[in-house]
User: Which sequence fits this backbone?
């Protein structure tokens, strides 16, 4: 285990924002994960697990603890009852992994192409987009239990998956470090075409291939500034900064009355706990509250292509600060709440902030 001190963190995040970690280690094996956890526990040092940095905002002061960067690599494939089970190490690049499964004609995650980050982060947030969630394809998750100091495995049914949630970011937040994720995919399966833009691109009967759907998803994401492209100023973000609120049908009617128009809405999910609930795009609420694409507050701004993405608009060597990003987020959230009575919930993880800073905007 190679331990480094005062390691700059901004370059490990898609925001390109944040101060240094007091200590830093990149774990490339399960033994190194266990060793790093023991090192931090023995010294009573705060521990943070870093993956791809695509859903993270680091404070300007940095983090006074140990950042454990997951670098485990490797993918194996096994056949099981007509399915292909991909065992992917947590440090594998997510989009590259999706591309491999598409090229090998295994369906199940093709609509999740173009999402930045690593494999290990996908079950934590139950990553989803364009009609798919990883919850529908994950077979099991292997993780290190910080409390028990041992590796454990969870079947998908034990992961507590819900919209943008799992046991790993809710009831067991901070307890488990994902080391490997197993995906159960369908060889020769048809692509998922639930999302409206994909249905328009591939009308019924068009027999779209997995590769064509993945390519279209990337095209859509790039059009919204949600695809990492070198030199694109809209890419210095953490993707969607706010979650889409889930509300009752009655609440939708109230929002429509306030806005003078019906909001877009979608079913909240297929589970019994989501019956009767609807999901409203946070981007629509933000726009109706008066914030347009390209809006700026100092060096922080809203993407010129998607209202839901806050971006680091800094230039000439002066990037946005974490404080500026949070100030913009707070302004947006307060205005939406004042107009519609809806509290927007942040998506990115905050690291190194005080308790006051970490409060919901």
Assistant:
């Amino acid at each position: 285990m190679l331990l480094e001190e005062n390691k700059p963190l901004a370059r490990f995040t898609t925001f390109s924002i944040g101060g240094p970690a007091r200590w830093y280690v990149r774990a490339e094996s399960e033994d190194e994960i266990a060793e790093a956890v023991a090192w931090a526990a023995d010294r009573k040092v705060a521990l943070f697990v870093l993956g791809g940095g695509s859903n993270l905002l680091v404070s300007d002061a940095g983090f006074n603890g140990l950042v454990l960067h997951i670098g485990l690599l490797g993918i194996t494939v096994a056949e099981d009852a007509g399915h292909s089970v991909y065992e992917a190490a947590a440090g594998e690049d997510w989009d590259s992994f999706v591309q491999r499964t598409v090229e090998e004609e295994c369906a199940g995650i093709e609509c999740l192409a173009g999402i930045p980050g690593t494999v290990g982060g996908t079950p934590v947030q139950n990553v989803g987009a364009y009609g798919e969630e990883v919850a529908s394809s994950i077979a099991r998750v292997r993780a290190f239990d910080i409390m028990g100091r041992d590796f454990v495995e969870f079947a998908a049914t034990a992961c507590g998956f819900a919209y943008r949630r799992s046991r790993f970011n809710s009831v067991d937040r901070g307890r488990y470090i994902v080391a490997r994720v197993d995906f159960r995919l369908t060889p020769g399966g048809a692509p998922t075409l639930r999302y409206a833009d994909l249905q328009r691109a591939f009308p019924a009967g068009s027999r779209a291939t997995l590769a064509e759907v993945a390519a279209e998803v990337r095209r859509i994401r790039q059009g919204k500034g949600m695809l990492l492209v070198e030199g694109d100023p809209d890419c210095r973000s953490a993707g969607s900064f706010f979650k889409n609120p889930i509300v009752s049908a009655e609440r939708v009617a109230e929002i429509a009355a306030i806005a003078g128009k019906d909001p877009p809405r979608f079913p909240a999910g297929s589970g019994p706990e989501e019956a009767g609930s609807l999901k409203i795009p946070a981007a629509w609420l933000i726009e109706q509250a008066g914030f347009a694409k390209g809006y700026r507050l100092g060096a922080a701004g809203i993407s010129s292509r998607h209202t839901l993405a806050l971006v680091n608009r800094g230039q000439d060597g002066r990037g946005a600060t974490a404080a500026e990003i949070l100030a913009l987020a707070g302004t947006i959230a307060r205005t939406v709440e004042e107009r519609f009575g809806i509290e927007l919930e942040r998506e990115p993880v905050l690291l190194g902030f005080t308790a006051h800073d970490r409060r919901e905007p």
Notes: The chain has nine helices and 21 strands. The first strand starts at residue 3 and ends at 8.
